[in-house]
Amino acid sequence: QVQLVQSGAEVKKPGSSVKVSCKASGGTFSSYTISWVRQAPGQGLEWMGRIIPILGIANYAQKFQGRVTITADKSTSTAYMELSSLRSEDTAVYYCARDRGLLGFDPWGQGTLVTVSS
Amino acid sequence: QSVLTQPPSASGTPGQRVTISCSGSSSNIGSNTVNWYQQLPGTAPKLLIYSNNQRPSGVPDRFSGSKSGTSASLAISGLQSEDEADYYCAAWDDSLNAHYVFGTGTKVTVL
Fold first, then answer.
1. Rg (CA), chain A
2. Which residues does A74 contact at the CB level (< 8 Å), separation at least 6?
3. Are B44 and A47 within 8 A, CB to CB?
């Protein structure tokens, strides 16, 4: 049974960066894809990008190109999402999820609240 | 922003049937399968339906999904109080770089 556990809440200043981790247990980490999704307060879900750890290849939603970097460390079964040049609109809960392609995202991490405030 | 359109809300009394629509385009629903997620208050989303109409293990059979052309729908039959949640449709979109798109979300209220 795959489980994803994310790092804790963060408070950041505008213009800074944040790096959120997502540690997997169960299954074979390098064999599956991890996607990142965010949800602003009271808003819907927004896909940010994904990584295939075994290939080390990531692709990103156009909206976040140049500002987001998704990486994976196979040795620790951990995926990371780093978002730079933070602004108040980036305040959101950030989720990682195992991306099963056409079969959907399952399971999800518990979410990490990132608050951007001066 | 979301490219799949859902009604903002739906409601029903316990035992009723509720249906949620999801409208997309040829580059997403028209080309790929649809997934549905349930998000209970204060929790992470959970996969409810995948590949248009398949239920993951543990999902009650009162939840069903369907797809036709560029639209999809989720039905909840025998509505229960614990079904009060937000529901999102989603699909891969093949326009430009492949990316995953979510619906606008529907809040289901059990009256």
1. 13
2. A29, A30, A53, A54
3. no
Question: Mind listing the pLDDT tens digit for each residue in A62-112?
Answer: 999 999 999 999 999 999 999 999 999 999 999 999 999 989 999 999 999
CA distance B13 to chain A (A): 25
Hunting for tokens 């326009």 — which residue is that?
A: B95
Q: Give the nearest chain A residue to B32 (CA atoms).
A: A102
* Residue type (1 letter), B51: S
Amino acid letter, A68: V
Preceding peptide of A107 cis, ω within 30°: yes
Greater confidence (B108 vs A28) lies with B108
Mutate to test the interface with B, among A105, A110, A112, A113 (most CBs of B within 10 A): A105
Q: For A106, which residue in chain B has the nearest alpha carbon? A: B47
A44 to B50: CB separation less than 8 angstroms, yes or no: no
DSSP state of B1: -
Optimal mutation site among A3, A51, A106, A113, interface B, most CBs of chain B within 10 A: A106
pLDDT in tens, A6-56: 999 999 999 999 999 999 998 888 888 999 999 999 999 999 999 998 888
What is the token pair recorded at A20?
A: 């959120």
Tell me the DSSP string of B31-88.
Answer: TS--EEEEE-TTS--EEEEBTTTBPPTT--TTEEEEEETTEEEEEE-S--GGG-EEEE
